[in-house]
Design goal:
Blueprint lengths: L1 E5 L6 E7 L2 E9 L2 E8 L3 E2 L2 E3 L3 E9 L2 E5 L2 E5 L4 E4 L5 E5 L5 E9 L8 E4 L7
Antiparallel strand pairs: 1-2, 2-3, 3-4, 4-12, 5-11, 6-13, 7-10, 7-12, 8-9, 8-11
Length: 127
């Protein structure tokens, strides 16, 4: 399900989307960057994926994140951050019993939702 929510200005509309693993909400977007709040349900994880046009920086707000980046696993709790370099194969997961909330800052010339190549996916969305 895809929703578009109005912001203060009629020129700005911020996206929000429910996914099988949780949801994401765009907080801010401008040329060169996008900021999202991502919620990951307990026991779920995102696709193992790469991006051609952007890097990402994750800051854990609530819960414990299991971050896989180019085959290495990093566990991050509230206040910790993880960098995902451009082109790195990565995945974010929540192995805990509470919701995981992160803020994701995307940097790059293009931050569209179609800049994704899924390598593995628990919900059959590979490609």
């Amino acid at each position: 399900m895809r929703r578009v929510e109005s912001e203060r200005s009629s020129k700005v509309s911020l996206e929000s989307e429910d996914r099988p693993w949780g949801s994401w909400h765009v907080i801010d977007v401008n040329p060169g960057y996008k900021i999202k709040r991502i919620h990951v349900n307990p026991g779920h994880r995102l696709s193992l994926q790469t991006h051609e046009h952007r890097s990402e920086h994750w800051v854990v707000v609530f819960g414990v994140a299991t971050c896989e980046i180019d085959g290495e696993t990093v566990i991050a709790g509230p206040g910790h951050s993880v960098d995902v370099p451009l082109g790195a194969k990565h995945r974010l997961g929540n192995e805990g019993k509470e919701e995981l909330v992160i803020v994701e800052v995307q940097h790059g010339a293009y931050t569209g939702e179609d800049d994704i190549c899924r390598h593995e996916d628990d919900f059959g969305r590979v490609g």
